[in-house]
Write a structure and sequence with these properties.
The chain is mainly alpha-helical and 129 residues long. The chain has two domains: 84 residues, Orthogonal Bundle (434 Repressor (Amino-terminal Domain)), CATH 1.10.260; 40 residues. It has six helices and no strands. The longest helix has 29 residues. The chain is rod-shaped and about 95 Å long.
């Protein structure tokens, strides 16, 4: 599961008893922008990370790493989903290719039968059903 760092901001504000509206004023951003970050609709950029560090005391680099980690988690989730769906995709093949494969299998079967027959003759082997 990918966790947007905005959720961590929300947790921090709640733990400290700070209202979102008041915090937006403290860090000098519009409340709607802070809300968008908290709800994962906007990213934490360097400027916001520095403001968060200044007010919350949580390192700006950590916020940026959390944001990058969020996108890495999303990428991995999408990759896993593609792999999962790939397994379910039917194999699509033109009929002419299927006929060619069928003929190749028949030829291999005939070759195998001839080989077994030759071994039986050479080694005086009788196969019973």
């Amino acid at each position: 599961m990918a966790v947007h760092p905005g959720g961590i901001i929300a947790d921090e504000l709640e733990a400290r008893g700070i209202k979102q509206k008041d915090f937006a004023k403290q860090i000098g951003v519009a409340q709607s922008n802070l809300s968008a970050v908290i709800h994962g609709r906007r990213d934490i950029n360097k400027d916001l990370a520095e403001k968060l560090e200044q007010i919350l005391g949580i390192d700006a680099d950590l916020w940026l790493r959390l944001q990058a980690g969020y996108y890495e988690d999303l990428r991995l989730i999408r990759e896993r989903e593609r792999e999962k769906n790939k397994e379910k995709e039917p194999i699509v093949m033109p009929l002419s290719d299927i006929i060619k494969l069928q003929k190749q299998v028949e030829n291999m079967n005939n070759t195998l039968i001839a080989f077994i027959s030759q071994l039986q003759k050479q080694n005086n082997i009788v196969l019973k059903k």
